[in-house]
Every structure is written in C-alpha cells, then in structure tokens.
Write a structure and sequence with these properties.
about 625 residues, alpha/beta, seven-stranded mixed sheet, six-stranded mixed sheet, 21 helices, globular
Length: about 625
C-alpha cells in the first residue's frame, strides 16, 4: 500500500474508493506537500460522543509541537442535530478560524453532501462508506471507511458503538496525516483520565482499528501532512471560561451568584470545582466562599450588588439575555456605587437568538446599561491568559471605583479550546480602594460617603461591621447628597452626576492600555477588540503579502478608551474598525468620544453570521473598500 511519506505510483486497491486516475500524490496546486498549514473539519451529530475524538485529535497535533486551535460549532438542542468541529494547524502560529476547509471527516448523512459541495478543489474527504460521497465530485481526494464494520469487533456492547466509532476516524486521519500514534495514545489517555482506564483502552483499540484499516486499504493522494515542530513547548490548552474561573479564584472572589445560561454556565461550573479544591479551610473543613444558584438573573445580580456593598469580592456570569434582565440592578450598582464583577460571555441575539453561536453584540448595551445616565467600564480579553489576568483587574477596578465592571468575553473564547502560555502568578496585592477603617474614622471624626475629597470622583466608603458610630451602614439608589442623605434638590443631583462623570474620566488612567503596533509606512490602520484580534492580525499579513498594503494595528483592551485611541486614529488616513455585530457597536462607541475630524477617518468592517471571525472575511472587505 502507499503510505504517507512514500513516493511512487498509485496502486489500485479493492476496498478503497479514492479517486486516483488523474491525481498526483502528496501535492497541492504548486506540486508541493502542504505541511502543518491546513484545517480539518469533523462533521457529526450532537450527542454522538465525537467531542472526545476531536479533542484527542487536536491535542495529538499540539503534542507534536504544531500550533493548533479548535472550534466547536454545535446546536442548542440536547442531541441529534448537526455539529462541526474544526481544527486548524498553522506553522505560522495563526490560531483564528480559517474560512476554507482542507480536510473533511464526513460522518453525518444529513449534511455530508452539502459539506462536500462547499470544499475547494484539492481538499480531502474521509467519509462513512455507505454515503458514497466519491460520486459527487472528481476534484477531491476521497477515502471511504466502513465504520460500522470496524467498530463491531472493537466494541461488543452495541449501545456504546456510536460513541466508540468516532475514535476510528482518529486512527484513519492519524495515518493519513502522519500524526504520531504515540501522541494520539498519550492524548487519549489524558482525555479519559486514570479513573476511566478501561474505557480508554477500548477507545485506543478503536484508534488502532482505524489505523490498521487505513494502512491496508487506503492510498494517500492528498498533500496534507503533520510533521513535528517545536512551537508548543511549555504551552497549555484551555478554554476561556476555565481560564476566567481560575482568574476569579486567584483574585479572591468570595461570593458567586449565577443563573445557568449558554455559553457562560461552564465558567461558574469550573469555578465551583476550583473553589472546592483550593478554597476550603484545612483546619475546619469549611468553605471560605459562597456559591448561590439564584432563581433568575435579576436575583443573581441583586445578590452580587449586596455582597459587594457588604465588602465581599462578588461576581456573576451570564450572557446577553441575562444582562438585559440585570439592567435595573446594574443601575443601582452605578448610582449607589457598589462594586460588582459581571462576566458576559456574549452570544448571538437579539432575544433567544442563536445561543450556541458567537458575537460581540453587547458592547453598546453594557456601556450604558440601565435607564438614565450611566456609563460602565468594560474589559476585552482576547485570550485565555487575558481572561485570567483581566478577572483580577476587573475586581480591582470594581473596588477602586466602587462600580460594576463588565468583562466582555464571547462564546468563541469562552467555550472553545485555545493554545496558551501558562498564566502568570499574581504578584500584586489585592486592591480594595478607598475603604476607611475604625482608625481612619477616629482620626477624621467622620466622613461624607459621596464627597469628592481627592478630585477624582471617587468617594470614601466603610464596610458594614466597622466599629465606629460615624461609619456608614446604609446606601440608597434614590436621590442623595454627599452625606448619602435623601434629597431631590436640583443642585445635589447635578453635583452627584457630575462627580460620577469625573470618576468615569479618572478610569481612563487606570484601565489596561491597548496593544498598539505602528507602521511608519502605513496610511491605513486596523482597530479591533477581543477575539477579533486573531482575524485582524492574520488579515494584516494577507493584505501585505497579497496586495502590498501596509497597515498599523490597535487592539482595545478596555472601555473607557484611553488617549491612545485618538492618537492612533489621527496618525492614519483611514482606520478600519472590526466589529462582530451588525450595527458596528465598537465603532459607535468610538464615535461618541472622538472629534469630528477623527470620526471622518473611520471605516467599518462587520461580520455577524455567528461563526468565529476569519481573516479572509476581514481582508476581502478591506480590499473592496480600498479599491484594490
């Protein structure tokens, strides 16, 4: 049989339906092998157990030192609808979604024909033999595999076969791509863990069955290969929700209140696991934290506001629909000035929308959430490492400024697996902000809760239980003066709102500054936030290589924006703002703050289809607007 890495002519094989009459082996359109630079898509059905096989395949490539990322596109029902898992291997380190699929594993009869129709010529297809997909096109590399025949001897128990049969394609794909089987075995046993060794062994036998079938019956004609590199040493694979949960624990969270909602539920579920493991008093065996699953999102944010006022580091995690319900309580947090951490894992709206698709659609809403005049700080993490570090930043900002702080992740970052550097251990002490102690009150002989003593808009506070008669124990969401006394006087209200506005302006000096890459040759700039980073960075490379267009780059990490934004826009003739929503929400926020001559330089690039943003979409839109 032909084998990856061997040359020679193509042989006729009885059991293979590979189209071999006019296809040269191992070459792309330029006569070269495609090594460590392609995407794999596995098309299955939800609830079939394919996630395990997909994660094993992804981790195997990662363990061979090849930069890799995984994207899971799944339905919002429990089981039975189509699901796609995309693995991208990139020797260049690009880990955003690739629009084109190069290697398809077609396991779902309902979508198989459409999946094949979407492929570019020269792609490879591993498929379930009864589907007879090789009859659809003559410009693809087809590999038929009798999965049902192969799984029987491996898994005698019929009810488990639909789960185990997925591991067979790991063996087939591993052989075709040259993935080292020692790495597949290592990834598989890591996935199952030591407590499921028997199940792992059965699945490993399924991998071997796929490998043996491929070795005996398939002839490789496609150009795609995985070869060992050294680009992942010391890195980890983790999803953004787990990284955020770790960040919250290290930041000292003590109260967690939540209501389950996709795609944020796994954030709190992960956090509960970490807290049970690391936040139990060794002497008493009692938890040093409280987790409450509330009756709804309204109750959860109310508990967070109350706990923050009482001195706890408190948080909730939710998504767009939950944020909508939280509006009035968030306004209370803003006006009464109580710290709160709100982690918004954004999904597609409006209404129920597409619960399992990604979007950056809550930017405008969260910036001014609640009725009346409000403005809230937001953080925009783009990676698991930033999910970890910005969780701590969010709690520090919330306490320093005594206000709700939003951490704006999205489904792509939160629920998908990402390659990441290990997280830095927090070295700075927890910052509680302007909290007065009993000693302070004795020295000052009292204080005014909402007075702007330092000119930064931030008042001093005390915590309930402070043993001093002048300590403040109450707050209010109705009209109040500097001493927290009820009032409806016009001047008191205006003074208070102006102070809150000064506080927001002070935040500009404290929020994380953007990442800026200036190119002295560039008259065009690109601006993005969050996970748009990966498409934006790769698009810059495409624009330069394919069109000779030099660009600069700014990635926002926080709102309110710092002066770096205005400086960047002023340096360029045209600035493209990348939005993952229909209404250009990031650009709209910028328009609220920039001068008219700066606004005139802004251009919009928008994608709102629910898939993770890809570089080619950004590149094509900029090329169109530039007239290239």
């Amino acid at each position: 049989m032909g084998h990856p890495g061997e040359g020679g002519s193509i042989k006729e094989v009885t059991m293979s339906t590979t189209q071999v009459t006019s296809v040269e082996p191992f070459v792309d359109g330029h006569g070269k092998a495609v090594v460590n630079d392609f995407s794999i898509q596995v098309a299955t059905v939800n609830g079939s157990g394919s996630q395990t096989a997909n994660n094993v395949l992804m981790r195997s490539i990662f363990q061979m030192g090849v930069p890799v990322s995984g994207k899971n596109l799944f339905p919002s029902n429990i089981a039975g609808l189509p699901t796609w898992f995309t693995i991208r291997a990139s020797k260049h380190g690009w880990i955003g979604r690739k629009k084109e699929i190069d290697f398809l594993v077609a396991m779902n009869p309902e979508t198989a024909q459409e999946d094949v129709a979407k492929l570019e010529p020269g792609a490879a297809v591993v498929y379930d033999e009864p589907l007879k997909l090789n009859t659809l096109r003559s410009d693809l590399h087809f590999y038929a595999v009798p999965f049902d025949k192969l799984v029987g001897p491996v898994c005698p128990e019929a009810k488990l076969r639909k789960l185990v049969r997925n591991m067979i394609y790991d063996g087939v794909v591993g052989w075709l791509l040259g993935i080292e089987f020692d790495e597949i075995r290592k990834a598989l046993f890591k996935q199952f863990g030591p407590k499921k060794a028997k199940a792992a062994e059965m699945n490993w036998n399924a991998v071997l069955a796929g490998r043996d079938f491929a070795e005996k019956n398939l002839v490789k004609t496609d150009p795609f290969r995985i070869e060992r590199m050294d680009q992942t040493a010391g890195k980890i694979i983790i999803d953004g929700n787990a990284a955020t949960a770790l960040g919250c624990m290290f930041a000292g969270v003590t109260v967690v209140t939540w209501y389950p909602i996709t795609p944020s539920s796994s954030l709190v579920e992960s956090l509960i696991g970490y807290l049970k493991r690391f936040r139990v008093d060794k002497e008493t065996g009692k938890a040093t934290y409280a987790v409450v699953q509330a009756e709804d999102e309204i109750a959860s944010i109310g508990m967070v506001i109350g706990a923050g006022w009482a001195g706890a580091r408190a948080m909730t995690a939710t998504a767009g629909p939950g944020i909508s319900l939280m509006s009035e309580f968030v306004g209370l947090g803003y006006y009464a000035e109580a710290p709160a951490g709100v982690f918004d894992v954004q999904r597609v709206g409006p209404s129920t929308g597409l619960p399992t698709r990604t979007m950056q659609g809550d930017l405008l809403k969260n910036a001014v959430l609640s009725h009346g005049d409000t403005r809230h700080p937001m953080l925009f993490p783009s990676s698991p490492e930033e999910c970890f570090t910005m969780a701590g930043t969010a709690f520090d900002l919330a306490e320093h400024f005594q206000t709700p702080v939003f951490v704006m992740t999205d489904l792509d970052l939160g629920m998908n697996n990402w390659m990441s550097d290990p997280f830095p251990y927090p070295e700075t002490p927890i910052a509680r902000g302007k909290v007065l102690t009993e000693e302070d009150l004795n020295r000052l002989n009292g204080f005014a809760r909402y007075a702007d003593v330092d000119g930064d808009g931030i008042g001093y506070r005390t915590l309930p239980g402070t043993k001093h008669p002048k300590a403040a124990y109450f707050t209010r969401g109705s009209g109040h003066n500097e001493k927290a006394q009820y009032t409806e006087r016009e001047d008191d209200y205006i003074n208070n709102m102006d102070r809150l506005s000064r506080k927001f302006e002070t935040m500009r000096q404290h929020v994380p500054k953007p990442e800026v890459v200036l190119n002295e040759k560039a008259s065009v700039g690109l601006i993005c936030c969050g996970t748009s980073r990966y498409a934006c960075e790769e698009s810059r490379d495409q624009l330069l290589r394919e069109y000779g267009l030099e660009t600069s780059y700014l990635r926002l990490k926080a709102y309110p924006f710092t002066g770096d934004l205005s400086d960047f826009v002023s340096r360029h003739e045209r600035v493209y703002v990348i939005d993952q929503n229909r209404d250009a929400q990031l650009l709209s926020l910028m328009r609220l703050e920039l001068a008219a001559e700066e606004i005139a330089r802004l251009r919009s690039v928008r994608y709102y289809g629910g898939m993770p943003l890809d570089a080619r979409t950004v590149t094509d839109d900029i090329v169109r607007q530039e007239g290239l």
